[in-house]
Design a protein that fits this description.
alpha+beta, 5-stranded mixed β-sheet, two-stranded antiparallel sheet, Homeodomain-like_sf, AraC family transcriptional regulator ligand-binding domain-containing protein, DNA-binding, HTH_AraC, AraC-type_N
């Protein structure tokens, strides 16, 4: 009933230790996956599966950075850093403290603050010492710091722009789900750009609040943890009534006690639409059903309430770039 994550993101997680390494192969086996399946077009996993996989890799490697740095960092290092940051009362103080703290473990990265034309940017300076994309590290570090700053000021901070050094891939729509639409790729550096006033917003988090943040299982993961009550309710109602057919937008609005226009505006505020939620849900069900080799294509199309097999085929091509048959063949190939 929640957003799913493209399977290649698991490949990004394993890039530091290598997908063909004995550790990675053992972990993939635990998840009943092969390294080849990480590249299957359209394949996705749930938030729970993804966050569980990241934590399992971190536990196996005993490394906060999952093998991406020259030497491992203790898994508990972030928690100690976050608790120590309670004494910081501004973004600049947090950056100075963060740089000093992590310099005890590595000289491979640090943060800088840059001002320009009414904006302030938090810039990640990272020394790439291996031939890797570092996609997971850059995504994670920007997301973690964005969430950390939001926690310390007591509200969700919306950046003007997020920039990544790596080029954009088709799967990166998930990053837009996490960060918003204002993303740039193939940039000169990785950075979060805020309105200039952000640098002067006072921090107010207490130790108890930071402890609650650290208990959030998704804190270190590439998953969205902001409240989306109407998106969640929409997915829930669609799932619960799937057997008899997909509820219409008007039906859901009525069930929630809202006018259709107000319901539409509530979803828009969460960055969602009824058609988008329904499409993603159909896609996720289709991916799960196609993993069963005993289910005929006609039966899957019927379960998803497509009027014709050709309509299912067309929709699946739009979701994944391949036909249902091609996807199943890739997924189930030895």
């Amino acid at each position: 009933m929640t957003q799913t994550i493209p399977m290649p993101f698991l490949g990004d997680v394993l890039e530091g230790i290598g997908t063909r390494s004995p550790v990675a192969q053992r972990l993939l086996s635990e998840w009943q996956l092969t390294d080849r399946q990480l590249t299957v077009s359209g394949h996705r996993v749930s938030k729970l599966e993804y966050s569980g996989f990241v934590k399992r890799v971190m536990f196996e490697t005993e490394d906060l950075f999952l093998g991406f740095l020259d030497k491992p960092l203790p898994r508990r290092a972030f928690g100690v850093f976050a608790m120590g940051a309670v004494g910081c009362r501004s973004l600049r103080a947090l950056v100075d403290y963060g740089n000093l703290y992590f310099s005890m473990f590595t000289d491979q990265f640090h943060w800088e603050i840059a001002r320009q034309a009414g904006t302030v940017a938090l810039v990640l300076k990272f020394d790439e010492r291996r031939n890797l994309s570092y996609r997971f590290i850059y995504q994670s570090m920007l997301l973690i710091w964005l969430r950390l700053i939001s926690w310390f000021i007591g509200e969700e901070l919306k950046p003007r722009v997020l920039a990544f050094r790596f080029p954009e891939l088709s799967i990166d729509s998930h990053l837009r789900y996490l960060f918003g639409e204002r993303l740039t790729f193939s940039a000169d550096d990785n950075r979060i750009v805020f309105d200039e006033a952000a640098i002067d917003v006072p921090f107010s988090a207490t130790q108890d609040e930071v402890l609650r943040m650290l208990k959030d299982n998704h804190n270190m993961m590439l998953v969205r943890n902001t409240a989306e009550p109407f998106t969640r309710q929409t997915r829930r109602l669609l799932v619960l009534h799937r057997e008899t057919g997909w509820l219409r937008q008007a039906d859901i609005a009525h069930t929630l006690g809202l006018s259709e226009n107000l319901y539409w505006r509530k979803l828009k505020k969460e960055g969602a639409t009824y058609s988008g939620i329904l499409g993603n849900l159909k896609r996720d069900f289709a991916l799960r059903l196609l993993a069963d080799p005993n289910l005929a294509m006609e039966a899957i199309a019927q379960q998803l309430h497509f009027s014709e097999l050709s309509a299912f085929d067309k929709a699946f091509r739009k979701w994944t770039g391949s036909t249902p048959g091609q996807y199943r063949a890739q997924l189930l190939a030895d």
